[in-house]
Amino acid sequence: LPRTRFLSDSEAAKLDAALAADEPLYAHLFGISLLTAQRMGACARMRWEDVQLTGAPCWRIPAVDMKGRRGGHVVPLVPQAVAILRARRKIVNDSSRWVFPSVNGLPLPAWSKPWLRIIRRAGLWHEDADRRPRPHDLRRTAGARMTAAGVPLSVVCKALGDQPSSASMVARVYAQVSDEALNDAFSAMSKPRRSR
């Protein structure tokens, strides 16, 4: 079974607060992953040459950074993502081609230790590793938010950079029903109907 873990709204709020208290490098990296719905590896290898911050802001992800490498992918950048990238531009040395460079100037090779630090700070760490959020859960959270907002699965597939044939997998993994949505559905069903 594929992992279907995504962050609830309350978990996302705790994570946002923990990210705001962390160093900008990782706060920005994890923020970009959530705001673009892209895999951590692609986010860590984001290049300035692939980012457009003016006009219609977007990130052109080359095929080499896409899972399966079927082709490149274009992600529109929402205003919050543009703000993060503008902040990165002020921090990152102009000679670096990487948005998230490591101390040796190469793209970040790993992010698991900072992630554990952040989820501990957020109060989201759990002894059971399956219940503990993982960085890829940011992508699942973005996909789940899209489906919860009524975005058609074909559009969610395109936003995630998945093939249209992946719609059934996207439905299983991202079209999850939150407890709040389930409670709202039963509340709506139990309200008295008006007679005509």
Task: Describe the secondary structure blueprint for this structure.
Layout: H1 9-20, H2 24-36, H3 40-44, E1 51-52, E2 58-61, E3 73-76, H4 79-91, H5 112-121, H6 136-148, H7 153-160, H8 167-174, H9 179-190
Antiparallel strand pairs: 1-2, 2-3
Helix pairs in contact: 1-2, 2-4, 2-6, 6-7
**Radius of gyration computed on alpha carbons:** 18 Å
**What's the total count of β strands?**
3
**Secondary structure: helix percent:** 40-55%
What is the end-to-end distance?
A: 47 Å
The average pLDDT value, as a whole number, equals: 87
Poorly predicted parts = none
Give the oligomeric state.
Answer: single chain
Features:
single chain, 196 residues, mainly alpha, three-stranded antiparallel sheet, 5% strand, globular
Task: Give an overview of the whole structure.
Helices cover about 50% and strands about 5% of the residues. The protein is globular, with a radius of gyration of 18 Å. Helix 2 runs parallel beside helix 6 and helix 6 (about 135-150) packs antiparallel against helix 7. The protein starts with 8 loop residues before the first helix and ends in a 6-residue tail after the last helix. Strand 1 and strand 2 (about 60) form a beta hairpin. The mean pLDDT is about 85. Strands 1-2-3 form a 3-stranded antiparallel β-sheet, with no helix packed on it. It has helices spanning about 10-20, 25-35, 40-45, 80-90, 110-120, 135-150, 155-160, 165-175, 180-190; strands at about 50, 60, 75. The protein contains 9 helices and 3 strands. By secondary structure, the protein is mainly alpha-helical.
